[in-house]
Each structure stands twice: as C-alpha cells, then as structure tokens.
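Bench notes, afternoon.
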Amino acid sequence: MTKIITLAERPTAATQYPKAIGAMLPVVGKPARVSATAVVPDTVYRLENVRVDRAQLGEYCRATGLQYGADLPLTYLFVLQFPLAMETMVARDFPFGAIGAVHAENKIERFRQIRVDEPLTIATHAEHLREHRKGMLIDVISEFFVGRELVARQTGTFLKQQRTSLSGDERGPAPKDTAPPPPDRVLSVDLALIRQYAAASGDRNPIHMANTSAKLFGFSQAIAHGMWSAAAAIANVEAQLPAAVIYTVRFGKPLLLPAKVNLYTAKDDDGYTVSMLNRRKGYPHLTGRLTAI
C-alpha cells in the first residue's frame, strides 16, 4: 500500500546532505551494488501550498537566460520539485545513494501555462528500477497540482553505475570525434555562473561547486549542472513554445568548467530539437526535443 508523507515544510540541504553522505559509509551505508530485484519504496512525498520565491526565480533566470515574467519558466518545475526528489533519494529504503547518482535523462510535461502566483501541491515518488548496460536506472517522478488539477509532471532518470547482466551486450561502433558545424550560438559558462545557478536552484552537489570537491568524485574539474544546460538550451525558443509541451533531454559527456559550447536549435512541424556539442570534437553534452502535447 502506498505510503503518503505530507511534509510540513520544504526539506533543506542541511538535513538531506548528511543523509546522503551517510549512505556512502561502509557497513552503515547503502550497498555498493544494487540488485535487479531490489524493492523500490512505495512512498509519496507531498508538499502543499508551494509558493514561488520571486527573488530566487529572478536569480535563476539570470543564471540561465530564461525569461522572468508572469508564467513559470518550463525548467523551473525541476527546481521546485528538487527538494522532494532529494528527500526520496536520501531515504534509507531508496535502492542507492544520491551522491554519485548520474542524472541521465529528464522529461518535463507541462499541460498548461502555470502562473508564478499559483500555489502548487507537489507529490514525488520513485519507480521503474531497471538494468542498463552502464548500471541501474530509476525514475523519480513529481506531479504538480493546482487544486485538484494536474498541471505538470517532471521525471528525472538517474543512473547508479555498476556492472549488470546487460553490461556484456554487444555495443555499436563508438562515435568518431568530428568538427561540429557552425553553431546557432556559442554559450560560455564558468564556475561563477554555475555557483549562481546552484544558489538559485538549491542544487549544491559538490561536483558542481569546486574543482577540489569534484575531483573526489572522479572529475578532473567541476562540471555544469545538466539542468542548467537544459534551461540555457531553450532560452531563445521558450517564448515560442505552446502552453502544453513536453521537453525531453538526454545528457551526454559532462561539461567541464570553464567551457564554451556550441548550441543548435532546429524547428520542424512537430516542435524543436536542441543540442549542445563540444566545440572541437563535436560530441554531445545534451540533446533535447520539445513537442506540443
């Protein structure tokens, strides 16, 4: 039976990060490997009367290039549910630890425009643990309500890296590095901008905050948030999007800071395709698709 936990206030990093770090400890933490038959907790974390902090939203828009106005930017829905997603992932019965989990894909379904001043109820749960050749995938899903009306759904797909029964499957040929075509725009991003985004989004994962802390998790330098890239990629087309829209993104190689990346936007009859490519070798940091519902 589903367990619904209605929180009295928005969770904070001060309570969540100690739990996330504790999950990494030997013996008392979570196991290094996740079984394909591991149980996903049937728990929904719920937060009512969520109000947008306009000052925080303004900082978010400055960090991403999205428009500040009467309606919520599409990707700000990820920010609003992030504390609940973290609460889900730092719970003791979640299959793996939050720190080290890779945000592999994301999908936002917005069923209508949402005004900044509308109070929201957000309900978050995890489901669909499954094998991937690089490890175990799980979906963390948040639904947004105005009253009883479902106005949006956000799905983050996270990867726990390990060997699985699919790891030995035959792989296709590795893509060759090629010089990318001339971009529609060149985006510049550095550690200062990403720290600004971290403050506005609440996501202060150590891999984003400093080179020294990123190296502890296997990165040569600090990396940009995937959802910063997802937001910045649509800054020039957001005003043209329909009210009811689906935005799917797949994250590629991490974006090491500081960096300049090529941004591409292509419109067709069904919507837009966006991508961020490495300027020299052409490999993707992000590929995305926006389509009307």
